[in-house]
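Cross-check.
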Amino acid sequence: MGKFKGINHLALVTGDMDKTTKFYRDILGMDLVATIGGELAGEPMRHYFFKCGDGTTIAFFEWDGVKAEHKPAGLPVRGAVQFDHLSLNVEDEEALLALKAHLGSHGVDVTRVVDHDFIRSIYFTDPNGIALEASYWVRDATASENPTQDTSLFKDPNPVPSVQAVASVDR
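Predicted model, tokenized:
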């Protein structure tokens, strides 16, 4: 089996494709690169794709009657949830600060810059209540062919068993 080249698309849900398009295309600056419309299983639908990197898109299905949920990025949640947040990669701190200012100028609530040691981030929410993060790598954990070789990036003091076995060999 070959290695994955990245994420083709992350499919999310909206009840308002126009509002979603205005946010992702007009505020975040992602190109709208493809659209599908019609019916699926007898229901009207739209499926729009926004480019967020080479070969990578965020896609939305518009379904009638979908209600926005709000789950703040990176904060604890109670109850049934499968998705926490999506982090979008930016080039560097200058780009992160520019995005923070840009979002604020459009009335989007955005957090302070959070320092996670090897990444720095801001958090905000789209019009559908989807928790988003924008981050840049201070030390790029994906840059090596052997991602476990930089043990300074492994910060969990009590890793799960499948990682403990690797950690004891690699460290």
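Strands lie at 9-14, 32-40, 43-53, 56-62, 86-89, 114-115, 119-125, 131-137. Residues 93-105 form the longest helix (13 residues). Passed to J.P. for a second look.
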